[in-house]
Amino acid sequence: MMIASTDDTSQPTTIFDEEHLQSRLDVIRQYVSKPIPKQPWDDNSPALVPFHDDDSNINPNSGGGGIIIGGARHAANIPLLKSMNVVAVLNCASGGIARLPVSEMKDCGIRYAFTNVKSDSYTYPILHEKKTIPKRPQKLENQMNGNTETEERIVCSQHLEVSNALFTDIRRQNSTKKEDEPVGNVLFICVAGQNRSAALGVATLLLHGKPMEEILKHCAKQRPFVLENIGFQRQIVELEAIIHKLNSRSTPTDKNELLRDQFKSHYVQIQSARLETQQEANKRVRITEVNEDDRKLQHLTSRPLSTIHHSKSERDILQGKKVEIELLIPGLCTMEVRIPKTSTINTVKQTLIQHANENLLKHDEQPAKVAKAWLILAMFGKDDMYDIPLESEAVELRVQLERMKSMFGLSATLKGMCLFVIICKYTCMHACFLY
């Protein structure tokens, strides 16, 4: 991998020592990336990777506030989550979320969040990707001629930012517990618990300073078949190399500043992963002094809270004007969308189409827009026999109204030819899009 140099010569220089990366890839393959057990096989054991700063204080049953790597079946097992002291679940898959017992998790005090890793292909940028950006500062002659000098940067993925934010928040909560109080673990899941959840789990622990060998030792004992994706393996050892560069105390100050600029997004994640002293934490009022509104929001949204002031969207949720639902686009991904609590079906549909266009389709290599959509109402934990097509061509409006009331307990009224629905939390909308 190459990147434009930050010095005046602007000659391409290598970011990584390929020989060193290969040696680290060999370490990964020494511990994990083993064949999946032969069928039939009961996948009842997710991999607990404990995180602790002091070996003498670790509670072996709690994992010391660590990350558990598993699959969808583990997230669906509420007794298992309780037994492993899971306080948060991060879904790293792109679909199938509507069948998880999210409402039961919430009732048990377990936070639920997700990040839509659309693919587990070797080339998917699950941890970071190369981006071409304008070089700063631009040369005067280029500014006068309208030319733009560019350079390539390696930028953290949103997936890694989400996983790091969630784990950091749980670690902060754990740090405030008394000695006799159990600390919580975070379950990272994907469909099989093999690649996506493992890659993000390992990467998040690396950001928090845990050595890769220690992480892999725990995985090898419990799920040795994880991380068979060679592309994800490569991104993990690249991340490890970036973290080492940024944390190296032997790097001269001037070069260190260049590295922080070169890997700015990674540096931000490393800094956010660092647990603050009490004096520093007191300056971060939104973290140390969680008010009643924050507590309400944590139960109403899967997104991280704004750091200083509530956003308009958050205020709308607090005031009951909007509700957050989950949009499942089969075969592609899931997305959380905030919509007016009382809406017509057409309003819901147009809001979801707009969200998909602006937050998904326009970022593809070949940008597109939704041309045709079919909308289906579902509820977390319900079988698909309860799904209701919200299309008058498929189900007559009055039948939609009756089913919403009897099957989902939603408040709905028919005014003229418009069906008004009061949407509740834990509602999922399946949308089939043509684009």
Task: Give an overview in words.
By secondary structure, the protein is α/β, with parallel strands linked by helices. It folds into 2 domains: 2-126 and 156-273, Alpha-Beta Complex (Protein-Tyrosine Phosphatase, Chain A); 321-434, Ubiquitin-like (UB roll). The protein is 39% helix and 21% strand. The protein is built from 17 helices and 17 strands. It has helices spanning 18-31, 72-75, 78-83, 102-107, 140-145, 158-175, 196-207, 212-222, 230-247, 253-262, 264-273, 278-283, 285-288, 292-300, 312-318, 345-359, 397-408; strands spanning 2-4, 12-14, 47-49, 67-71, 86-91, 111-114, 128-134, 150-156, 185-190, 322-329, 333-340, 342-344, 372-379, 388-389, 411-415, 418-422, 427-434. The strands form 5 sheets. Strands 3-4-9-5-6 form a 5-stranded mixed beta sheet. Strands 11-10-17-13-14 form a 5-stranded mixed beta sheet. A 3-stranded antiparallel beta sheet has the order 12-16-15. Strand 15 (411-415) and strand 16 (418-422) form a beta hairpin. Helix 1 (18-31) crosses helix 9, helix 6 packs across helix 7 (196-207) and helix 7 packs parallel to helix 9 (230-247). The chain is globular. 34% of the residues are buried. Mean pLDDT is 76; it is low at 1-13, 53-63, 277-291 and 305-310.
What is shown here, in short?
The chain has helices at residues 18-31, 72-75, 78-83, 102-107, 140-145, 158-175, 196-207, 212-222, 230-247, 253-262, 264-273, 278-283, 285-288, 292-300, 312-318, 345-359, 397-408, and strands at 2-4, 12-14, 47-49, 67-71, 86-91, 111-114, 128-134, 150-156, 185-190, 322-329, 333-340, 342-344, 372-379, 388-389, 411-415, 418-422, 427-434. With 435 residues, the protein is α/β, with parallel strands linked by helices.
